[in-house]
Amino acid sequence: MELIKSKTFANLVRAYAGECQARTRYEFIEYGARNEGYVAMAELIDKVAYNEFNHARMFYSFIQTASDKPIENAEVCAGYPFKEKWNLLDNLKFASEDESNEAVKIYPEFAKVAKEEGFTDIANLFTNITQVENCHKMLFEQLYTQMKNGTLYKKDKAVKWKCSSCGYEHTAKEAFKVCPICQAKQGSAMLKIEDEN
Ligand SMILES: [Fe+2]
Ligand SMILES: [Fe+2]
User: Fold this and answer.
1) Ligand with minimal distance to 107 CA
2) How far is the CA of 87 from the centre of ligand 1 (A)?
3) Averaged pLDDT of the chain
4) Which end is more exposed in the chain, N or C (fewer Cβ atoms within 10 Å of the end residue's Cβ)?
5) Nearest bound ligand to CA 136?
6) Domains in the chain, please, with CATH?
């Protein structure tokens, strides 16, 4: 089957658009986090946005293989979420829901179709990216829960905190209010995220 005439081609276009939008939404969230002083959280979200850029890049690369000529227009029917407003806590929850939708529903289905149509490499790409989106989902879930419960910088037991701007470390239940080396505020203390894998 020719890629350009396949369902997989349309799914690649949908996925590419979805990744571009996810990246932009995360830049919105990152911008909000940084404005509110959650520097370390912003850095984590920025990394997720960069992951989405690279997913988009890989989908784009496969789209390019579908035709020798420039693709003037690829028209597909698709829907995308527009839930985020400008509340950081809500946005973290929405982001985790959107990642879950990609990881649980959309990409596994796209992988299945690609496999049925004989595009093994593309099926593998969808499957591998599903795993990453699942990790993103868990990251956003943890950020949401910790922020909601007030445990981003406060733990039951003493833990090691590290300043993301200068590397200062100390062990305590609560992260430094102001870093004694670089004067960064508490929002620069690196967050405790359990390994998703
Ligand atoms: Fe992605
Ligand atoms: Fe993601």
Assistant:
1) 1
2) 22
3) 96
4) C
5) 2
6) 3-149 (1.20.1260.10), 154-188 (2.20.28.10)
